[in-house]
């Protein structure tokens, strides 16, 4: 879990997938210049610890569309200097292409997003919440925006979910990252949140994280 910063202020999450690439949501970095974003790794707190990394390039999925239910909401950040892996910072395991987590799969979302909405401020300590994968059909029934096959939804009822500031962060299950925080109805209302389904983008990641 990493923190994306502008002028040292957290705005989105991300995850380490190799020593020089960060996986995040396209809507976090669309239109941003690499020099405007820094990545902080190796800490669970926003105000202390960790290492700051400059970004050399940003790759947003060419099919990303905010107007079309944030379709293909995925991006890669290449770091100027590779991360030195330690016990505090290492790469997350990704699923195989097409290795989809089914409804009922236990999962965990993490991030520094608001813990209440409207939020009075971001929490200093990294938060996590236990959720379950919801079928795309059930998820679609709760949303007017389109739930694509490249989306995955998760919920645990009212009071549990992701919020502003969590975007781009990981949804994990059994140590693998199955989702990227994308969009939802703010916040933790009991309506499933929508994530980018990572297993549908492994080929894209492998083609672009080079």
From TrEMBL:
Main subcellular location: secreted
Domain Peptidase S1 as annotated: residue spans: 1-210
Single Gene Ontology MF annotation: serine-type endopeptidase activity
UniProt keyword annotations, A-Z: Disulfide bond, Hydrolase, Protease, Secreted, Serine protease
Gene Ontology process terms (BP): protein processing
Location in the cell: Secreted
GO CC, any one term: extracellular region
A Pfam family of this chain: Trypsin
Protein family according to the UniProt entry: Belongs to the peptidase S1 family.
This protein's name: Putative Per a allergen
Organism: Periplaneta americana
Taxonomy of the source species: Eukaryota, Metazoa, Ecdysozoa, Arthropoda, Hexapoda
